[in-house]
Amino acid sequence: MPEHIKVVATNRKAGFEYFLFERFEAGLSLMGSEIKSIRAGQISLAEAYVRVDDVKGAFLMEAHIAPYEQANRFNHDPKRARRLLLHKKEIHELWDAVRLKGVTIIPIRVYLKNGRAKLEIAIARGKKLHDKREAIARRDAERESERDH
């Protein structure tokens, strides 16, 4: 059975702000009104990050999922913490990376895969200002070479 993937939201600043290392696919534990908002594309990963606790698991923090219009009083809190569905081994790997290596975990994109909401997360280290300038210079040089050809 072919996988049907529809990308709903991406964290466009992730590649610019961070060096991205290992990536993981995680399921999202959502309420009914949240999945309906995600299917409508009403999600923002701008300030989102992942908090990992060795005992409690992994949670998506500060991701904004807009309230669903038709849900009225059964609606959800737009910024609530959402549990990530990962294997125990993956949670331990993320926990060790954050604890020992001093990195962070950021969401890269949210997509629908065979009707289920999935979140791609990555272990990342923040870029310094000179790294960002270097990336801008490289991008501009590539644009120049494309224009010349």
What can you see in these coordinates?
This protein is an alpha+beta fold and 149 residues long. It has one domain: Small Protein B, Chain: A, CATH 2.40.280.10. The protein is 31% helix and 38% strand. It contains four helices and nine strands; from the N terminus they run E-H-E-H-E-E-E-E-E-H-E-E-H. The strands form two sheets. It has a seven-stranded antiparallel sheet. The protein is globular. The model has no long low-confidence stretch (mean pLDDT 87).
Individual helix count: 4
The count of DSSP E runs of length 2 or more, i.e. the number of strands, is: 9
* Estimated structural class: alpha+beta
Can you tell me the number of structural domains? Answer: 1
Give the biggest beta sheet: 7 strands, antiparallel
Low-confidence stretches: none
Topology-level CATH name: Small Protein B, Chain: A
**Strand neighbour order, sheet with most strands:** 1-8-9-2-7-5-4
Which CATH architecture? Answer: Beta Barrel
Mean pLDDT: 87
CATH superfamily: Small protein B
Helix percent reads 25-40%
The arrangement of helices and strands along the chain is EHEHEEEEEHEEH
Shape: globular
CATH class bucket:
Mainly Beta
Distance N terminus to C terminus? 42 Å
Q: What gyration radius follows from the Cα positions, in whole Å?
A: 17 Å
**Strand share of the residues?**
35-45%
